[in-house]
Structures are given as structure tokens and as C-alpha cells.
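Kindly inspect this today.
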Amino acid sequence: MKQQPFILMCACALTLVAGTASAHHSFAAEFDIEKPIEIRGTLTGMDWVNPHGWLYVDVTNDDGTVTNWAVEAGGATQLLRRGLRKTDFPEGTEVVVSGFLARSGEPVVNGRSVTTPDGKNFFLGAE
């Protein structure tokens, strides 16, 4: 009987770990390799996190409205290994992002590269 609380705690811990691990996705499940896209806009923020970093870019549409696009990048560790720093992406910077459109139709891109006005081209991909 005394083992029941221990077994219950272990089961709960495994459930929490499994839930977190399943949150990661494959490229093909989320993005369409047949739909490359290039967006131009103003960087509004960046989440420097794992397993994927995120850049947020305001893009002005043809009708004058603005859409905030989320750009998935490699994780913070991957970006640091490539020599990138969060300071390389100050808010307000005009950027050009190349990547692949989300299957959901939402304004989400799996980013491959981002180019800044001074001509720097950064690889954002997870591989």
C-alpha cells in the first residue's frame, strides 16, 4: 500500500515529460516545402528560446493593412553556435525573410534566412 503514492508520483512525472516532448514537430507536419515565400517588413520582436527561436515581422500588405508574421528559426543554442546574437536583430530593423509557408494558412514561416539592410544574411534554419 505504501508504494501506491510513489507509483502515482512516477506516473504523473512521466506524463508531464511525455507531454513536453510531444510538443516538438516535424517540418513537413507544419510547413509546405512546395510553398517558398519571401517577406519584407519591420522586425517587431524576437523570442530567443529553445527548441525554436521566433522572429516577428510586420509586413505591409498591398491594401495598406499590416500583418504580423511569426518566423520560426533554429533554437537559441543553434543560433549562438552560428555566431548570431540577439543584438544582431534590433527591433525596428527592416528585414527580408526567406522560408516556407505554414500549412495552416496562418502568417507563419519556417525561416531559412534573414537579410538586413546592411547586406548581412543570416541562416535561421534548424538544420
